[in-house]
Amino acid sequence: MQSSLEKDRRTLEAIGLIYCKAHHADAVKDAAGLCPSCREAVDHTLDRTIVCPYDHEGNCQDCDIHCQRGEAQERIKEIMRYSAPRMAYRHPLMTAEYLRKKIKGKRKSI
User: Fold this and answer.
1) Distance between CA 75 and CA 57 in Å, rounded?
2) What pTM was estimated for this model as a whole?
3) How far apart are CA 86 and CA 70, in angstroms?
């Protein structure tokens, strides 16, 4: 069974890949297919996830505090805004897991 952090890494890389293919087609890519800019955004988000005071329960957008600030937060929002609608078609199981996690997080806050 995969750890929560490993699932988050795979999901963020999938989201980043969708965005990167559409916006940075000519850039040099790493082994996962991400350009340096998208790799930095994904890695920074994962680093913030590791130190989340709530042990990364639920989804970041539903959290009372936000571990990312400023440019990093705007960058990952931009990537997710573009990629999220496309995830349902390209990665339906990851999308289902995201929705399950979102519903579970909402129930805990009620």
Assistant:
1) 22
2) 0.81
3) 25
Distance CA 35, CA 80 (A): 16
Instruction: Write the single-letter amino acid at 86.
Output: R
Spatial separation of the C-alpha atoms in residues 17 and 69, rounded to whole Å: 22
Average pLDDT over the chain reads: 84
Mapped onto helix, strand or coil, the DSSP state of residue 34 is coil
Provide CB contacts within 8 A for 63, sequence distance 6+: 52, 54
Question: Per the structure block, which two tokens stand in for 91?
Answer: 């990665």
pLDDT at 36 over 90: yes
DSSP 36-68: HHHHHHHHHHHHHHHT-TTTT-S-GGG-SS-S-
